[in-house]
Amino acid sequence: MDEAPLLAPLALRGVIFNPPLFCAPMAAITHSAFRRLLSDFGGYGALCTEMLSARMILHEDQKRSPCLKRRPQEGKVIYQLMVADTAHLPEIIDRLSALRPDGLDLNAACAAYAAVRQGCGSDLFEDAPRLREILRVMRRCFSGPLLTKIRLGRQSEGWRGRLEDRLRLMADEGVDALTVHPRFFDEKFKRSARHALYSELAQQARLPIIASGDIRGAEDFREHAEQLAPVSGVMIGRMAAACPWIFARWRNPGLHVDYAEIWRRLCDYISEDFDPTRALIRLQVIAPYFARNFSFGHTFFKAVQSAPDLATARRRTEDFLSAEPALVRNVSVDGI
pLDDT averaged over the chain? Predict the structure, then answer.
């Protein structure tokens, strides 16, 4: 097997991300328990929290909240914020500072209804004056790396001009790096990510770009090496939910994993950080991804989704995994 592709360390305001491989923020997945599992394998440069409602941060118990707390073994953690305005923003950032984040990331990409109706995510991207105001406050209140996650905008006439305007705005307001998912808002994951745009975007942005979308590991990075040459880092999301060892395999493609032991460990970690009801919900969220490792993964998935309680879900999956189920040759998260 060819040697895994290497990326130079990424330095942002004195913080070194080495390697510049990032686990993407994923709702109800990248909580403290899942990040703990990822840290067991390592291989990344930083982990991201879930997209956090900025005002929620004011009320959560920082030491106990699975949304906020971090463990030393996680390494570098970037906190992603869902922000609609600057109300309470300095107070929010001050409260987060106690957790010593290795970066703050403003989500200007999410097109989910729950985010858009609050004026966050893609709605914020469309509103340049409000985006500028929020970034200005974040930069004034936080001295560490400030990142922004974006898509290409709305697929309508003039999208290139609007995107270039936003790239210029972010650079002017002190953003240190951009995570760019090269799809339009309304596409979600329907078509292939436009990796060929990274060269153009890197020139326009004047900032390091972290590539996101359709990069499932070192093999994909190698396959698209020419198109990805301009990027300074890689962010992986759904494939990390399916294969939490994906970052470790970037440098160690022969890494052996014990699926039953990993799932059991994840269940333990989630049970430690959540009450039984919420723990079951978190398992039900991640089960569709982990199930993609198996030829008959739908059986695994249904066993969790239909479980009336956490104990039943654990017993059913233990029975499935103890039978040493056949594995798929290539894991795919298409359709989730």
Answer: 95
User: Which letter does DSSP use for residue 329 in this model?
Assistant: S
CA distances in angstroms from 141 to 89, 104, 136, 314, listed in the order given: 9, 11, 9, 44
Strand positions, DSSP E, the chain: 10-12, 15-17, 21-23, 46-53, 77-82, 103-108, 146-150, 177-180, 209-212, 233-236
- CB atoms closer than 10 angstroms to residue 86: 17
User: At the topology level of CATH, where does 10-251 sit?
Assistant: TIM Barrel (3.20.20)
Phi, psi of 83, rounded to the nearest 5 degrees:
-125, 140
- Summarised one tens digit per residue, pLDDT across range 228-262 is 999 999 999 999 999 999 999 998 999 999 999 99
pTM greater than 0.90: yes
CA 307 to chain centre: 27
Alpha-carbon torsion 283, 284, 288, 293, what sign?
A: positive
Residue 1 has pLDDT above 50, yes or no: no
Token pair of 154, please?
Answer: 């709305």
Per the DSSP assignment, residues forming a β-bridge with 10 are 17
Tens digit of each residue's pLDDT (9 = 90 or more) over 73-94? 999 999 999 999 999 999 999 9
Q: Please answer whether residues 266 and 33 qualify as being in contact, where contact means their C-beta atoms are separated by less than 8 angstroms.
A: yes
* pLDDT at 186 (0 to 100): 87
User: Is residue 19 reached through a cis peptide bond, with omega within 30 degrees of 0 on the bond before it?
Assistant: yes
Q: Which residues contact 88 (CB under 8 A, 6 or more apart)?
A: 54, 55, 58
d(CA 111, CA 200): 24
Per-residue pLDDT at 2 exceeds 90:
no
Q: Where are the domains of the chain?
A: 10-251, 259-322
Point out which residues pair with 212 in neighbouring strands. 235
147 within 8 A of 46, measured Cβ to Cβ: no
